Amino acid sequence: MAKGFRQMLDEADALVASVSVEEMAQRTDDPALVMVDIRDPRELEREGMIPGAFHAPRGMLEFWIDPESPYHKPRFAQDAVFVFYCASGWRSLLAARLAQEMGLKARSLRGGFSEWKAAGQPVAAREGKRD
């Protein structure tokens, strides 16, 4: 029988470390961390993003991470901890698990961008494309 998304989330949650909004708010200037927003571009345009975050659409993640891919982004070759986030934390938890399986040091932002905003943390307008 196929796995449901709840089972997939539970498995990912057991394997991937999550960080709280409070912890990330204190570390946004830490060069050893790269915040990765995996939301759809329309979400970014509508709601903004965490200042300094790197946008990597969820649908391109595997291609951008793999150094053998013609779509590889050098940002993913950095020696850093990558903290993935989406709106609620579900997509980013699965993305962080995938990134971890591909060899990255990956974390997920617990509660996602919604919790970030609810906590009154800063939000920036989406900037142009970045690598």
Automatic annotation (TrEMBL):
CDD domains: Polysulfide_ST. Residues 29-125 form the Rhodanese domain. It comes from the Bacteria. It holds the Pfam family Rhodanese. PANTHER family: THIOSULFATE SULFURTRANSFERASE PSPE (PTHR44086:SF13), THIOSULFATE SULFURTRANSFERASE RDL2, MITOCHONDRIAL-RELATED (PTHR44086). This is Rhodanese-like domain-containing protein. It comes from Paracoccus stylophorae.
